[in-house]
Design brief:
The chain is an alpha+beta fold. It contains 1 helix and 8 strands. The chain is elongated and about 75 Å long.
């Protein structure tokens, strides 16, 4: 390659790298401020059991609505940006759970089943 070609290629490479760096920073900033519910459980919890909600920016959740019951933020056992702990209310029923936030409601994708009994029907030889 000749020297003139290398000199012309250098500004183009710098421009492309700067576009990549600036677009990567914007993606990280958007994700970090989004309130997300990743999972919760145990799904077969009983009334009075501790329920855990895992996600991002959960410290912004103001209340959690069950079918038949509401738990305000003051009723949470613990609340961090990644975890909320609370006691399943006695009036809660089977159904979707809704997290109330300043940015809008977040409805769980799975149904909270209460009092699901566990039954072992078979065992492998290794378990015995």
């Amino acid at each position: 390659m000749n020297k003139t070609f290398k000199i012309r290629l250098l500004p183009l490479m710098c421009f492309m790298l700067s576009i990549g760096i600036f677009s990567a920073c914007k993606k990280n900033q958007d994700v970090s401020s989004k309130i997300e519910l990743l999972s919760f459980g145990p799904t077969g919890a009983k009334h009075g059991d501790t329920l855990r909600f895992f996600g991002n920016n959960l410290n912004k959740v103001t209340e959690i609505n069950f079918v038949g019951a509401v738990v305000a933020q003051s009723g949470f056992l613990s609340q961090t940006s990644e975890l909320i702990l609370l006691i399943v209310p006695n009036k809660a029923e089977k159904g979707f759970v809704t997290l109330k936030t300043p940015d809008g409601d977040i409805v769980s994708k799975t149904i909270l089943n209460l009092g699901v009994s566990v039954m072992v029907t078979t065992m492998t030889a290794e378990v015995r």
